[in-house]
Amino acid sequence: MSSSQRRLLVTSALPYANGQIHIGHLVEYVQTDIWVRFQRMRGHEVHYVGADDTHGTPIMLRAEKEGLTPKELIANVWKEHKRDFDNFLISFDNYYTTDSPENEKLAQSIYLKLRDAGLIEKRAIEQAYDPVKEMFLPDRFIKGECPKCGAKDQYGDNCEKCGATYSPTDLKNPFSVVSGATPIKKISDHYFFKLSDPRCEEFLRDWTQVKTPLQPEARNKMKEWVGQPGDRKLGDWDISRDAPYFGFEIPDAPGKYFYVWLDAPIGYYASFLNYCQAKGLNFDEWVKPDTATEQYHFIGKDILYFHTLFWPATLNFAGYRTPTNVFAHGFLTVDGEKMSKSRGTLISANSVIDCGFNPEWFRYYFATKLNDSMEDLDLNLQDFVARVNSDLLGKYINIASRSAGFLVKRFGGIVSDEAMNNPLLKEIATASDKIAELYEGREYAKALRTVMELADKVNGFVDENKPWEIAKDPEREADLQHVCSITLEAFRMLSLYLKPVIPHVAAGVEEFLSLSPMSWSDINIPLSSKNPIKPYKHLMTRVEAPQIEALLAANL
Hints:
By secondary structure, the protein is α/β, with parallel strands linked by helices.
């Protein structure tokens, strides 16, 4: 391993095993996958792991409704999720489940370390209890009016309208989502992780405000939550749930179970541990506090609280390294509005495939909208059709189709080595560092804008030199080979820059141009007369408007 090679552990948030993957979810996985593929192209050691988040009351209740055991339900959902991720070319090294022996062992070990550090406390608390179902109600299974702003039909943990967080017992006019009954209050012993401990507060102020290069929006939000020294703003975190509950039992508390948000993030490590055991990697080298490895989490901004407060504190005080950084993204809207089942815009990942869409259309379009901020992004369906057809087909793919035929038919697929010194090619190569910096910083929209500006210059070169006109003159054979060689080399370089975003197309380009899989450093290794190109085959088709109509209809 070279001294400049980085060692990266990367995760995306774990999808809950209680529903389908939809295009809103895919924004995150595409964002992560592009970054991971780019890092692999740079020659770094990268391990990208994920898992289904499988525990909690919703899983238990859905399994009961469908006549399945919870384990049967999550096994079925895992297959669906894995299918969807594979279809969208999400390149997990390991995709696992939080309902695993590795996760149970790690969760119990971390809990005991926190307990021994004096950061776990048992308290008798008053909870909402459903007298019809005879069960304590999780926060999300109680609804009512927000105690802060009065908004109706809000969940028991936070208000979607004003953003306030609160206890379920604070709701006004509460009702059980399970039975509709009015919850009663009942006492139960619960276990808390003491985030209010001065050690935790001091650590989190330092980790969120000094040590970790969080996004400015995230850092500012953390500052609101952790406050200044002496503020004592953090509340303790309830990490236990009462039976009946699908999850892991707490080791020293029979009948009590870990709250899903305690064992779910630990599932990142459990998936990686499972992978390490299969691949012969040393797990401890990656997770110990003094490791030189890097650890990155890609998440939605709605779960920032868990990943920048609870998760790093859990790791730190259990003797593990903390994340190098946490990257949060915004939500996806469709045509400027929140995704809606009634409008057909809550689009499932599988319906995209069933309707004959190329998943790389979506990968590219999302990438043109993504940057390093937490701002929301919009899938405008008309713009989607226009952008994909204009950029990928009109600007990029068109370059190859305009030149390859001449080279194959007239020159046996052999390029001109002398053509590789053309100033246009040098200009494209010079952009390598800039584009790499933009990918590294998750500024995908800027990276792709730069690539398409280069594509415009290549198309301008073709329009200016008109190979179809040169081909008519038998005395200009050398000129024809020269122009087409420059054009295809430019296409190769653009394909290299686009490879993290459209890897399937890039693989087709590598086959067509007789190349080994391209790494980032190959930008300066041009096509050679020693490796004739193959006949050109269509690499991508256009999006047609009727396909959009069919997709919306499929999701009503």
